[in-house]
């Protein structure tokens, strides 16, 4: 097996793992009624951009080899780093889903009996699921040996992140008031103590 092949297979396994982790929460969360929502055209657009970068472009590359002219031969150390990032991302992703439980949403929703989670993985960082997605995008950049399809996840998710955090925090502030303002004041966004 070449490093390029291992990288592509690992990327596909990462997407499969991501879905296996998310599926049961998606089913459970669907049963909790949505009380208010911040979905709209802007949210749909940023989700589509993120999906293109994290799913469609690397998926097309792994399945067909397109765009071939941007393909390169990665070193083993690069694939090893990518596998490490992949494992970290999936562990973190599962922890955040477990912590949010039925309050989780693929988009921006406040559900019936929504509680603000501020402990466990949410104690020092208020967007740990986005930390997991950044790590996953980094893993993709290392594992997918293509100059376009590899970094596309960092760009696509980066756009979603930059455009979504402010409206998400506004929504949480409207729903939880001072409790959220205090929580926001004592936490970082995605890296404990740093950002
Ligand atoms: N930004 C968070 C969650 C992403 S999922 C993270 O990165 O971990 C988005 C949904 O999670 C939103 O619909 C929002 O209502 C909910 N949510 C975000 N932070 C929350 C928290 N601390 N407690 C409860 N629900 C939260």
TrEMBL record:
Gene3D superfamilies: 1.20.120.1630. One of its GO terms (cellular component) is membrane. Coiled coil: none annotated. The chain crosses the membrane at residues 6-25, 45-63, 75-93, 133-163. It comes from the Bacteria. The keyword Lipid metabolism does not apply. The keyword Transferase does not apply. It is a multi-pass membrane protein. It holds the Pfam family ICMT. It is found in: Membrane. PANTHER family: PROTEIN-S ISOPRENYLCYSTEINE O-METHYLTRANSFERASE (PTHR12714), PROTEIN-S-ISOPRENYLCYSTEINE O-METHYLTRANSFERASE (PTHR12714:SF9). This is Isoprenylcysteine carboxyl methyltransferase. The lineage of its organism: Bacteria, Pseudomonadati, Pseudomonadota, Alphaproteobacteria, Hyphomicrobiales.
